[in-house]
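Re-run requested by the PI after the first attempt was lost when the workstation crashed. Everything re-entered from the original request form. Ligand of interest: calcium ion.
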Amino acid sequence: MATAPSPLPAHAGPAVASPLYAALGALLALLALTRGGHVEVVLVASGVAALLTTAAALVLLRAGTNSRAYAAAGAAWGTAVALAGTWPHTDVAGLSLAQLLVAAGTLGPLLVVLRLLRDARAGTDDPPLLVDALMLATALATVGWDAFTRSGHHGGTGWTASTVLTLTATALLAGSATALAVEHPRLRAAAVGLSLLGVGTALTGICFHHERATAHVAVVAALAGGTAGLLLLPRAGIVQHGGEAAARAARRLETASLVPGPILLVDLVLLVLSPRSDPVLFALYISVLVAYTVRHAATARAVDRSYRALRERTLRDELTGLGNRTALQDALTQPDREQALVLLELTGLDDVNDVLGVRSGDAVVRAAADRLVRVLAGPGGTAYRTGRDEVAVLLPGGTADALRHVDALAAAVAEAPAAVDGAARFPLLATAGVSSCPLDAPGDPMAPLVRADIALRDARRLGPGGVSVYSGDVAAAHARRSLLRERLSVAVRDGLVAVHYQPVVSFTTGRVAKLEALARWDDPVLGRVNPAEFVAVAEESNLVVALGEHVLRTAVRDAAAIGVFDAGVGLAVNVSVVQLQSPGFADVVRDILAAHDVDPALLTLELTESVFLDTDSPAERVVTELARLGCRIAIDDFGTGYSAFGYLGRLPVHVLKIDRSLTRSVTEDGTGQSVLTCVVDLANRLGLTTVVEGVETAEQAAVCRSVDAPLGQGWLYAPAVPLTDVPAQLARVHPVPGSAQPVAG
Ligand code: C2E
Ligand code: CA
Ligand code: CA
C-alpha cells in the first residue's frame, strides 16, 4: 500500500524568499568579481554557496514550522561570509572587518540552534532535536572558527585549511558514491551533483597555494555541482512513504551516512599532526565527532523503531487487533508444529451492516474477535482476521482436534451481537471450513488456506453455521462445480441451454392447463447435467440471472410461436431469488411478454418460499410489481421449507405447488393424505390454486382428485418434453380418476 508522497505544499514564503536569496548570492559573486585578485575565493564561494543552497532548500524541503527561520539564518551566514571574503584585509576601527562579519553571520545560525533547543524542551522529540542542536552548534562553531581564523590578517590559509578542505571534500565524495547505490533516480542524480561538489572542493584545497586559476575553476565546478545536487535532492517524504523499495533506499542512505564518521576521524588526526596547532579547532572537531556519533546512534534507533512499528502495522488488523492475512501467511510459511486451519465466516454480519450500519457491524466483529481470542487461550490457538467477515484460526494438532473446538468457536461468534447495542436480534453464525497444515508438507505453504477456503464454500452449501472439513471428496465436488460454472457460463452465453416443457394437467378434465418450462443442458464434455445441480451452481454466482432470462425468453417466444397461449394454455417459469434481486427484473418480464403480445395472466412465475421469509426484502417488492403486471405467482416446492402461511395474507400469491415428497406420502400413510387434504382445503379457502407435483401413479392421482385438488403434474402424464412434442401433449386428454371412461380425445 504505497502512498505517493504528497506534492509540495504551495506557500507564499519561499516563492518570495527563494529567488531573493538566489539573487543576493549572484549579486555578492558579482561584487567579489569587481574586486579582482584581492578577494579570498574560498570564503566568497562558500558564502554564495550557502545562499544558493538556502534558496534551493526553501523550495525543495517540506516547509515545517522552522524552515523560514533556518533559511534566514543560512542566508545571513552566507551573506556575511561572502562579504568577509570580498574584503579580507580591511580594518574597521582597528578590528578586522572580515572577522567582524563572520562573527555577525554566526548569530543567525545561533538563533536556529536556540529555536531547536526551545522545540526540544517543548517535547517534540522526533527527531531528537537536542542532539541536532548540539551537532549543528558544534559544526557551526567549527566552520565559523575556521573561517574566522582564515579571514583575519594573521590566520591566513595554511596547511590545515587546505587539508581540511580536501578531506571534507573526500567525505562528500565517498558519501555520495555510497548514495549512488540508492535506487531512487532523483537521489542518484543528487549524488552525482554532490560528487561534483566534492571533486571541486578537493581540487580547490589541493591547488590553493600553487594554482590559483585551477582553484577558481574548481570552485565554479563545485558550486554548480552542489547546487544541482541540492536541487535534485528529494524530500524525505519519498523515502518515508515509498513502500518496500523506498525502505531499502532508506536503509542504504543510512549506510551512506556512516561514511562521514571515519573521515571526520582522519580529519581530526591530520589536525593533530598539522604544523599549525590550533587547540580550539581541535576541541571543536572532537565535539562534532561526538555529536555526530550520538546523532547517528539516535537515527539508527529511530529508524529501527519506525521499521518495527511499520512491520507491526502491516501484520495487524486495525479493527480487531488480530493478525491479518499477511500474518497468517507468515505463520503458514514458518510452521513450528502440526496445526489445523479453521476459516470462520461470520454469517449474518451483512444484516447488521445493512440495518444498523457499518459501525455496529465493526463492533460486532470486534466483539467476536475478543471472544474468539478468549476461547483460543485454552487450546493455544491463534486468530487472524482474513476478510471483512472472515476469521482464520490456527489450532495445534490435526483436523480432528480442531473439530473439537469448532463448537466453542461458533458459540463465541454467536454471543458477539449481544455485546453490541441493538444487534442482539441479529443471529450471527460461524460457517466453518477446516483443513490441516501438516509439518514439512511439500509444495505451496499457502495450500492449507486454499483448502480451508474450498471447505468453507462446501460448508456454505450446508447452510449458515455449516462445518466442512477439506477432503478428497470436497475437493472433487469443488472442482466439478468450478468446471460446471465455467462451461455453463459459455453455454448460457451461446444459447446452448435448451428448454423442455412439462404439462400441468387438470384432474377434472384431463386436459393440459399449463406447461412448466424446465431448463435442459447437454454439455459436450460433461454430458447431460441435472438441472438441480447446474441451477444450484448458477445460483452461487450471478449466472442464474442470465440463465433464467434465457429460459424465460425462449419459453415465451416458442410457446407463442406454436400457439400455446392462443389455446388458452398457460406457461410456468421458475425464477430464482437471485433473479428477483437483480435490478430491472420486472421490466425484463414486461418487455418479453409485450414483445410476443402475451397476456401476463398466462404467465406463472414459480418462486420458492425463501423469497418471502424476509419481511420487507427488495424481492418482495418485485413480487408485488410482477403481480401488478398481471402475472401469477406460484410458491414452488410447498411442504419442503417452512410451510408458513403468514406471507400468504401479505403477498399476492396465486398458486401453491405441493412438493412431490408430500405427493409420495399420500399413498404410503394416512397422515400424508390428511396433510394433503388440509393444504388443499386451506388453499381453496384462500382462493389459491394447488398444483400437486410428482404425480407418478394413478392411485396418487385418484387421491388428489378425491381431496379436490385441481391440478397435477408428473410422470403419470408426461415428463418434460422438447418443444416439438408439445403440440402432441396439448392434444392429449388424460384419464380422469373416478370417472368410468377415459374421455376420448
Ligand atoms: P421444480 O421446479 O420443482 O421442477 C420440477 C422437477 O420435478 C423437474 O425436475 C421435473 O423434471 C421433475 N419431475 C416432474 N415430474 C416428476 C415426477 O413425477 N417424479 C419425479 N421424481 N420428478 C418429477 P428437473 O427438470 O430436474 O428440475 C429440477 C429443478 O431445477 C426444478 O425443480 C427447478 O427448481 C430447477 N430448475 C429447472 N429449470 C429451471 C430454470 O429454468 N430456472 C430455475 N431458476 N430453476 C430451474
Ligand atoms: Ca418449478
Ligand atoms: Ca417443485
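Saved to the shared folder this time. Residues 185 and 279 are 43 Å apart (CA to CA).
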